[in-house]
Design goal:
heterotrimer, A alpha/beta, B mainly alpha, C mainly alpha, A: alpha/beta, Rossmann fold, 2 domains, 7-stranded mixed β-sheet, 15 helices, C: mainly alpha
């Protein structure tokens, strides 16, 4: 009579064990058969007390792998993945099994924070690479900070990311409070703009850049015709009509390419003849597919970026070729930066491991990151006391492409090395 | 006179078109006068005509934008209103039917582009084919959804089918995304460049400084929807099927007793509503040039607002509601920032639609043209 | 099938079995979670425990003891070993409170509210604005934090705001309810949906003319209430050190603290909901839900009762909003999207409209599904994709699997399927309310 109950219980226990196995991502060398992980996994569940020497080290990535910005987010993950494959050898030689733990933040702060708690709870993760969106990075990094887990950002340009002065937060790119004034300087001096129409996408990133641009423009005496934010993604009529009527010299769009492309196209169609100016959110070949001729007709389109195209970095040629061979597509913006971030992670873990004479703690890794000088693809990386590059590269790129295939024809019309403004 | 009004040409073509013209002119005039009055009131001092000038400068374009989007809303709103008329049920997934129609249409054009046929074909044939395909797919999708998710729930408490419809709507958004991501690796669908739709018809009017600019795609959009609306009007008021639909809407059990196949008529209603939504989707895609699986949500909500505004269940009401809502939204989004000097801007336009919905429901719950329907428990 | 489970339930309730099962689960669950803190299966085993305690027939005193043991000792200890579990349980508690609140509005009074998350936002923003430096930034550009900005209130005001949040949300509920409660059910659904969007858009845009919400940048940092003083905390810390294997940090204590706080709120919410259900108000709501006309005829003050339902439902969300803002130290408008409202609705529908244990179960199930099962499955797939593994038989290499297929991205799909399937096959929910079950069964016949 009670046998059935026992049977059910045992089924329950079995099922939970199976789930337990699933919950534990299998090691890279997972055997082929699908039922194998169930028997394998318990062995990989290393005890968490005092890390056993030469165990597993994981490096997390967090970026949007889905949604409208997945093109850039996936590039970050893949850049890091390639770096781990090519540069992970040192740690493997020391006897560590180095793995990538990619997380999808869906470009949403809530998901980012929940993932961050999951990441910091995994004691095998010693370092992380991410995020794409500053709006996600800022709340998530509070979790990294409390847990002492070092993160290196390949893409976040919002000043607040580093100005909080956390030891654990670093970035290998420049900042919006330098980038936006650079864009304004280009509009003022090179284009000779007298009036500008500022539009942003109502995200932490877009609004942040737009505010810095506005401040710089006001100082130079450029007339700000309007300062608008919009969440619209399809029908921009209501914004375009007053815009065309006020006839600005330059339209500054602070946002992401998938919204900007449609907007550029509709503004051009409605008769805007001036120049479009954007920031690093525009840096994706999809922009050309979305906007088409609108990018080159009239006053054309230019954008500032903190991540130049692969051609801007002499050292990145082999990287671009390897990337294309592995993933079947040319690297998008931030892929090289993610590669470098992962490189810094690996080098610092190695340095910390050597200093500690065994698996390092997170704090040791975080300290090592601040101490390291790393020869990366994009620049020589050494962080200052708040985690910025003391001098970062900024580019102004003029778009010549009208479709995805010709994206490489864009030219760099200026590049600067500008110091970080600090705290 | 009586003979004239019973003339089918008058009844089914001239009268509805005339009605639309009256609606457009009436709403445009009223709103234009209102905004000009506001401009005079809000200017900083009596001699300063800057605000008035700026208002007048963009007024024609604002009107054109409003009417264009208004027709899109009206076409979607018809889908809501027809289903509501027959089943007394808000088909929440209608916005996804609209989205699917748009995406299917764009994918067809992208396919033509891929095979190279796009540049050699007549542009109007391409659009026609895309609209037709969008209508067929959306119509059959609507019927399928009805069969799967709503039919088993007929007779259940009111909220049950509504929740099922919300679930269907969410399901469809992600299902379309899944299909698109698996086939193309991405879920943005981008309209290929072809034809002369981006060009403008420029009309210089004596006395107005800026010539009026009509974009060809806007004209196309309005033209196609007008044809569809006239066709729908004939279908509902001039055919036997239409009579059956009206009968089912009025009293389902009695209609059934009269030998009308109620299930068939309900399916036909969904088919028509879905097809209209699909066509609106393709037209919207031509205007917006980029779609994703989540694009239907806001137009769908606004179309529903339009349907309620006009009086849900009433076809003419949906048209009127759509036009008024489109115009109001266009006015609000374009002028809010000018009048408040940047303190409030276009970002409030979605709130505007909801505010209108709430106000209408409070003051006149049956809508502008609706009769008071006895509340059913 | 059904009789099989009924039999099983009856057999499990005989003799010593209930005790054996619950204690067994508790011991097995605790040990497995302790040993492998990252295993999902172990966690689920532990989570089965409270369900068993609730459903099996055990002496009430024993039940309470076991529940307290689990909630106050086992979970905090295990949670300090892996704070992600505390995060999961905290989210379960937050959503359970939201689901309980929504359950009052939908399940008891029969008013479909699609913008429920708006009240959550009201609570969260009320503490976010007053508990951060925002009040001294009213006239500065969003995103720029000028030096010298100071917190306007001391962190202890959190406790006051926990109650203020309840009041503000209830007020918002009444303000929304007053004009729209005359509407028919389906109109009401759309209007509340609109209201939810309005609150989100306001949060997004009220950074000008006065910078009240800091717009899309979100408000951060938000203060947390102070931890208990050292003479209480330190003994606990030294007690826990050998058990969890490291010295628990303040951050970990904060996680436990918020978990316990959420638990208290849940308990109060359950108590209030249970009392309401059986009170005169609760019966009035049931009458309104079943037949408004008849309810009016019986002399039930329709609008006042509907307003009471809105206010009561909203207040749960407001309280949790305050708690959430302090826990996250960050709020931004993106948290309060329509998807969240539908998520809470899904929990209520899945568990059972009108059923208090049902909606709590629903909240737990959906949260675990969302942030554990789907995420873990995604990670698992991604590990497979990195490997050279091939699916046997069809000879498909895992690494060719599209990146877009990650299950974690298909939340909406999952919610949608749950809603449709539940409505068609089991509208009364997985753990139906007794009264509701009778009604729906009658309806069908």
């Amino acid at each position: 009579m009670n046998k059935r109950l026992l049977a059910l219980l045992s089924v329950l226990v079995l099922a939970s064990m199976l789930l337990a196995a699933c919950g534990q991502p299998v090691a890279t060398e997972a055997p082929v058969a699908t039922d194998a992980p169930a028997t394998e996994a318990p062995a990989t569940e290393a005890p968490t007390e005092a890390p056993v020497a030469m165990g597993t080290i994981k490096i997390a990535t967090q970026s949007p792998l889905s949604g409208g910005q997945s093109l850039l987010g996936v590039a970050i993950k893949q850049g890091a993945e390639l770096a781990l494959e090519q540069l992970g050898g040192d740690l493997t030689a020391m006897g560590y099994d180095v793995q990538l733990a990619p997380y999808d933040d869906q470009a949403t702060p809530d998901v980012g924070v929940a993932n961050a708690k999951n990441i910091v709870a995994d004691t095998e993760i010693l370092c992380g690479v991410g995020h794409l969106n500053s709006g996600v990075m800022i709340p998530s990094s509070e979790e990294y900070h409390t847990a002492g887990l070092a993160f290196i950002s390949p893409a976040n340009t919002n000043p607040v990311v580093t100005t909080r002065g956390y030891l654990e937060v670093n970035r290998v790119v420049g900042r919006d409070d330098v980038q936006a004034p650079a864009a304004e300087e280009y509009a003022f001096s090179t284009l000779g703009a007298k009036s500008v129409y500022v539009i942003h996408d109502k995200t932490a990133y877009g609004q942040g850049v737009a505010e810095f641009f506005r401040t710089a423009a006001e100082e130079d005496g450029i007339e700000i015709l309007a300062f608008e934010g919009t969440e619209e993604t399809a029908n921009f009529d209501a914004i375009v009509t007053p815009l065309v009527a006020s006839n600005p010299d330059v339209v500054f769009f602070a946002g992401i390419y998938n919204q900007a492309g449609v907007f550029f196209k509709q503004a051009r169609e409605a008769g805007f003849e001036g120049t479009f100016l954007g920031t690093d959110g525009m840096d994706s070949s999809d922009l050309a597919d979305l906007a088409g001729d609108a990018l080159t007709s009239g006053g054309g389109m230019a954008y500032t970026t903190v991540a130049g195209p692969a051609s801007a970095y002499p050292a990145a040629a082999t990287f671009a070729a390897d990337y294309e061979a592995k993933f079947g597509a040319a690297p998008e913006a931030y892929a090289a930066q993610a590669y470098d971030s992962m490189g810094v992670c690996l080098a610092s873990i190695k340095a910390a491991a050597e200093a500690a004479g065994g698996t390092p703690t997170r704090a040791q890794v975080a300290e090592a990151i601040r101490a390291v000088t790393y020869e990366g693809l994009t620049s020589t990386i050494a962080f200052d006391e708040i985690g910025d590059l003391p001098v970062a590269k900024y580019f102004i790129i003029k778009v010549n492409a009208t479709s995805k295939d010709t994206w490489a024809s864009n030219e760099i019309i200026a590049s600067f090395d500008l110091p970080s403004p600090g705290k | 006179m009586k003979q004239f009004t019973s003339n089918p040409f008058y009844k089914f073509i001239l009268f509805p078109i005339g009605q639309m013209l009256v609606f457009i002119l009436g709403a445009s005039l009223a709103l234009s006068l209102f905004i000009i009055l506001l401009a005079f009131l809000f200017r900083s001092n009596v001699t300063d005509f800057d605000l008035v000038e700026r208002t007048l400068l963009i007024l024609p374009q604002v009107l054109i934008n409003g009417i264009t989007i208004g027709f899109v809303y009206a076409t979607i709103a018809l889908g809501y209103t027809m289903v509501y008329g027959v089943l007394e049920f808000i088909n929440f997934s209608h916005s996804e039917i609209f989205m699917v129609g748009g995406i299917v249409g764009v994918e067809l054009m992208a396919y033509f582009d891929h095979t190279g046929a796009l540049q050699t074909m007549n542009q109007y044939v391409v659009i026609g084919l895309a609209i037709l395909l969008g209508m067929v797919i959306s119509g059959s999708l609507a019927v399928t959804i009805e069969r799967i998710a709503y039919k088993p729930l007929r007779g259940a408490p009111r909220l049950v089918p509504l929740i099922s419809a919300i679930g269907m709507s969410f399901f469809l958004q992600d299902a379309v995304r899944l299909i698109l991501s698996l086939t193309t690796g991405e879920f943005n669908v981008i309209l290929p460049n072809f034809g002369t739709f981006d060009e403008f018809l420029i009309l210089a009017v004596p006395g107005i400084e800026n010539p009026l600019r009509f974009q060809i795609k806007s004209i196309l959009l309005v033209g196609v929807t007008v044809i569809m609306l006239v066709g729908l009007n004939y279908l509902v008021n001039g055919t036997k099927v239409g009579k059956a639909i009206r009968a089912v809407a009025q009293d389902r059990p009695s209609a059934s007793l009269m030998g009308i196949n109620v299930n068939l008529i309900i399916s036909i209603t969904f088919l028509i509503g879905g097809a209209l939504g699909g066509a609106a989707g393709v037209l919207f895609a031509i205007k917006a040039t980029r779609l994703d699986p989540f694009v239907g949500f806001f137009p769908g909500l606004k179309a529903f607002t339009a349907a309620v505004l006009g009086g849900i269940g009433n076809l003419t009401g949906a048209l009127l509601g759509g036009l008024i809502l489109g115009l109001l939204e266009s006015f609000g989004a374009s002028y809010l920032s000018i009048f408040t000097n940047g303190a409030f801007g276009a970002e409030y336009k979605d709130i505007l639609a909801f505010a209108i919905l709430i106000i209408v429901l409070i003051i006149r719950p049956s809508g502008l043209l609706g009769q008071t329907v006895a509340q059913k428990a | 099938m059904k009789t099989f489970f009924n039999d099983l339930y009856k057999k499990a309730n005989k003799g010593p079995w209930p005790l054996i099962i619950t204690v067994g689960l508790m011991v097995i669950g605790s040990i497995t979670v302790y040993q492998s803190p990252r295993s999902l299966g172990a966690f689920l085993t532990l989570m089965l425990c409270p369900m068993m305690i609730y459903f099996l027939k055990i002496n009430t005193k024993v039940k309470i003891f076991m529940g307290l043991l689990l909630a106050i000792v086992i979970i905090p200890v295990l949670g300090i070993r892996n704070i992600f579990y505390l995060e999961v349980i905290f989210q379960m508690a937050v959503f359970a409170a939201l689901a309980l609140g929504l359950n009052i509005v939908i399940g008891m009074a029969g008013l479909l509210d699609l913008g429920y998350v708006a009240f959550y936002a009201v609570g969260a923003y009320s503490w976010a604005i007053f508990g951060s430096k925002q009040l001294s930034l009213l006239h500065s550009i969003p995103g720029a934090a000028p030096a010298g900005a100071e917190f306007s209130l001391s962190p202890s005001y959190f406790w006051l705001f926990l109650f203020l949040g309840v009041g503000l949300a209830a007020l918002a509920g009444i303000l929304l309810g007053l004009p729209v409660l005359r509407l028919r059910g389906d109109y009401l659904a759309i209007v509340t949906l609109g209201f939810g969007e309005v609150i989100r858009v306001l949060a997004l845009n009220l950074d000008k003319p006065i910078n009240l919400t800091n717009g899309p940048q979100g408000i951060t940092p938000i203060q947390r209430p102070p931890l208990p003083p050292g003479f209480i905390l330190e003994p606990i810390r030294s007690l826990l050190t050998p058990i969890v294997g490291h010295v628990p940090t303040d951050a970990e204590f904060y996680n436990v603290f918020f978990y316990l706080l959420a638990l208290v709120v849940i308990l109060i919410a359950i108590a209030v909901a249970t009392r309401l259900e059986d009170s005169r108000i609760g019966r009035a709501w049931a009458a309104i839900r079943e037949d408004e006309t008849a309810a009016i005829a019986m002399g039930i003050p329709l609008v006042r009762m509907k307003l009471a339902a809105f206010a009561a439902g909203a207040s749960f969300a407001g309280c949790m909003g305050v708690l959430y803002a302090a826990n996250r130290t960050f709020v931004s408008p993106e948290t309060f999207s329509f998807l969240q409202s539908i998520g809470v609705l899904t929990m209520v529908i899945l568990g059972g409209l009108g059923s208090i244990p049902g909606v709590i179960f629903g909240a737990g199930a959906v949260v675990i599904l969302n942030i554990q099962v789907l995420q873990n499955f995604s990670l698992y797939l991604s590990a497979l994709r990195q490997s050279d593994a091939v699916i046997p038989i069809i000879n498909f290499a895992w690494k060719d699997l599209s990146n877009q297929l990650d299950p974690a991205k298909y939340q909406k799909l999952v919610f949608g399927i749950i809603l449709v399937v539940m409505m068609i096959f089991r509208p009364e929910g997985l753990i139906p309310a007794e009264r509701r079950k009778r009604e729906l069964v009658e309806d069908k016949e």
